[in-house]
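Hi,

I'm pasting everything inline rather than attaching a file, because the server keeps stripping attachments. The sequence lines come first, and each chain or strand is labelled.
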Amino acid sequence: MRSIMNIIASNGLAIILTVICVLPITAIFAYSLSAPLDDLFSNLGLWLRETQGWSLAPIEAELRFAKISFALRSVVIAVGISSLYFWITNWLNSGLARVREKKSIGRQSAIIEAIQPWIFVGPALVLLTLFLVVPAFMTLGISFQEANGTLTTNNYSFLWDPKALGYVQFRFAMRNSLMWLILVPTFCIIFGLAVAVLADSLRWGVVAKTFIFVPMAISFVGAAVIWRNIFAGGGIEAQQVINGFTPSYQTGLLKSILGHSPSYNEPLYNLKFWGNFFLMWIMVWIKTGFAMVIFSAALRGVPKETVEAAIIDGANPWQLFFKIKLPQIYSTVVVVWTYMVTEVLKVFDIPYALSANDDDKLLLATMMEAAKNTWSIGGDAVDNLFAAIAIMLMITVIPHMIFNAWRLRKEQKELGN
Amino acid sequence: MINRTLSNVVLALIVVIWVVPFIALVATSLRSEMATKTSGFWTSFTPTILGHRFSTHDKTEVLKSNELRGNIFKRINKDQDWFPVSGNIESIMFKGRVPDPNNPDKTILMKKLVPVGETMEVRGGDFIFETNGDFVWTFPDGSKLKPKKLDVFVNQDPVFAPEAYVEVLIDNENVPNALISSFIVTIPATIIPITIAAFAAYAFAWMRFPGRDWIFIGVVTLMIVPTQLAFLPILQGFNGIASWMMALQELLTDCEATDSCAVPSKSFAGLWITHTAFGQPLAIYLLRNYIVGLPKELLESARIDGASHMQIFLKIILPLSVPALASFAIFQFLWIWNDLLVALYIGPSSSGERVFPILLEQQLGTFGDQLHLLNASAVISMVVPVIVFLAMQRYFIRGLLAGSVKGG
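And the predicted assembly:
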């Protein structure tokens, strides 16, 4: 047994070394050999520009086609390299085992079996380690350093100490994060449940569900642009700039409906404190579709007998929902809740796009960017501060990670593995 | 009965709230710049009173008689390519100098709203106009009248035109560039993770190795880690690689002569590999849950026949997993197409290589009063993901439900 472990270890090492040597060199060769393709593509671009009569500048056409060619060969090379990896490792694995254990077939396959899984999970694990796990710990390290590398807790006291500069921003960020954390998942779940229940009982429910669902395909920034039309403030007063007069110069629908006074010309999301709720609403608009899909699947999974029994006992629709259906999909609600919470903690785009420079609308994620801009003059520890805020963000997520790990463990057991 | 009506009303209300923003988006993108500046999108569907300015005649025009006839709409639409004005004339805001009634030697500036049919005195002549835009301007014989600019209020019919789309797509470089960049980032970053994750998912599902379950849970839990946590070290790493590659290039080529040695540390390649890594947890989770559900007898019978894991994976599992691969591909596609954060920190920052979310974010600032352009770019940015999404809805929903609902 001892000797087989040694063989496995040495075979594994041999495979790793081969891969480390062969793959990068192949990649470099593939890239340099296929480089002329870029020129070919830029010439194609020039030719197309000529023949199609594009108004594009020649250099632009060249650059665009060179970029496209680079992307195309990257896809081919990347897929090729990963196939090469699996092919080489597989070949080496069985080949080495055969060489080491010429006679004993059983030991041969034992060696292969021991190494094979690691070959399969290897690339994914290496990527995750290099791009998530190690950087996360490095960020932790950076957050406890000054710019020159000396150890310190200054970056955290900068946030937590009421006398420090960052305290005000950090307090706003924490307050807003807390509000987002409570309100956004709540509203998503309420709307999602409502639509799921209503749509399943109505004939045009499928159409309704599609409409609620579509925002999920849209970027947060796109959603910000969309809702800007609703939340916008007044336009330019017609007489001032353009010839003439228009009866409504409110360009935002909601402000026009609410009859907001034209003297307040800012968009609604710029309101002090209350503006936050308009930003949150955009997130609710996007994410409700998710809750709805999951709830309507869960509601369909509720056993018919329980519902029928309740109806026979004379339950009204409200009782039917709150006393019979909701308790049975309770675990799904919790799952949606945790998903929403992590999404909300990470949300960055909406406040960044609509109110980047407003301390009053900061969230932890946007505060990182704000910190980079605000304190970058003179303060060379900005990166360290950035890291400290990232760690604060991570800390808020940890409970959900633990909960999710626990849930996954349970799920895996149920899957019988 | 009441319940049913109530259900209909509530659902309709929710749907309206969800759909109106889309209508606003498309309507705004099809309006003229002036219209978006001065009125809300909801006024664009019904006749609305809008102001326009027109000049009575061209400077070069020689007036023969003591009368000038013309049409206000024709004058307004003279230089309107996209948004011809039609409708009913309401009134003209007359601004000009008239003799001061109190002091006959002097004139005063007067502003007066003149309704249709009322004669007004313009440059010593009588100006009268009708609802359909015809006007007659009579003036003393022989006087050489300069053209007069007048502000007119028109109860204007709705008019939509794709002017903004033409402008952002053809006259301007930013949107086409962003469209190309977004595709360049998205397609490799969708394909590459799948090849890597599929093997890992198979191993997690059907192979035995020490620590398998815990590693799997660890990997999937990484889904929750905020990606911000990793940006600084990743960037440092890319900086290192970039300077290393620069040195290599200096060594191997004669780039110093053309001053082209610099290798940017923020590049498309960096984005691809970063997205590939960040996409692994979800990919592995979705694919593994799917592969675990495939009948185990498949694996066992193939093993008995002497197939290796590689063969089983390539010949049996991969063809069967196409639905799961598709559902991950949509998730990844939408996620990367719509991603602002990673692109902002890791992606290239030059103006020709911006992806769509970054461009839109910048346009939100710069196009503050060119809403028609902003909305048009937003529409263009959404066309691709919405089509992909609606076309492959089934797979998307399947992916969403994997794991969160039993038997979903």
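The mean pLDDT of chain B is 82.

If the labels don't parse on your end, tell me and I'll reformat.
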